[in-house]
Amino acid sequence: MKAISLLALPSLAYAAVQGFDISNWQPTVDYDGAYASGARFAMIKATEGTTYIDPLFNTHYPGATSAGLIRGGYHFAHPDSSSGSAQASYFLAHGGGWSADGLTLPGMLDLEAGCYGLSPSAMTSWIRDFGETYKDATGRYPMIYTTTSWWTECTANNADFGDYPLVLARWASSPGTLPASWDYYSFWQNSDQYAFGGDSQVWNGSEERLRVFASG
């Protein structure tokens, strides 16, 4: 079921807000420079599966916070290694939580690296297991980071995840066709290069609406 939201409808044409995502692949990030240039948010890798904690999460997260950036953690999914619930719990225990402080984004589930041998029905069940566990703990569904091609192949272009904010990955001049669950994207990763570190992302709305989104 597709969600309709005032956060990012085409009729409310706000300028996009710059942000970025980072992980241990970016050991040096200029958080203050990013903020000064107009960035207002950062998504920071926290975990993978149930065995890996990003070694720079505890550097990047406070660094982004100190610069005044809205920030949140993300989890790289391994649907072949353990249940969605187990991975959501691990993520929540290691930096992936959310609070209504206006500074924290809901956690992001990163789905991009193949179908892991799962059928579309098994994959959608796994994602739902992760999402419901996350929502039970925080009151919000996690964001989903994916590409249209991954979603089409690995979930058979499932249309039932509109309650999960979309972080669309497409390194191009336009977002292109969206996966079937969504009529709009909340965030768009539009490049794998950002001048101050990491990948470039943009929020589909105004800074005010970004803060409303972070507040829940």
UniProtKB/TrEMBL annotation:
As recorded in UniProt, its EC number(s) are: 3.2.1.17
Is Hydrolase among the key words of this record?
Answer: yes
Supply the enzyme class, top level: hydrolase
What the entry lists under InterPro entries is as follows: GH, Glyco_hydro_25, Glyco_hydro_25_AS, Glyco_hydro_fam25_subgr
Which reaction(s) does its UniProt entry say it catalyses? Hydrolysis of (1->4)-beta-linkages between N-acetylmuramic acid and N-acetyl-D-glucosamine residues in a peptidoglycan and between N-acetyl-D-glucosamine residues in chitodextrins
Record localization: Secreted
A biological process from GO:
killing of cells of another organism
User: Has the keyword Signal been applied to this entry?
Assistant: yes
Q: Which Pfam families match?
A: Glyco_hydro_25
Gene3D superfamilies given in the database record: Glycosidases
State the Gene Ontology terms under molecular function: lysozyme activity
Q: Which UniProt keywords apply?
A: Antimicrobial, Bacteriolytic enzyme, Disulfide bond, Glycosidase, Hydrolase, Secreted, Signal
Family, per the entry?
Answer: Belongs to the glycosyl hydrolase 25 family.
- Write the protein's name: Lysozyme
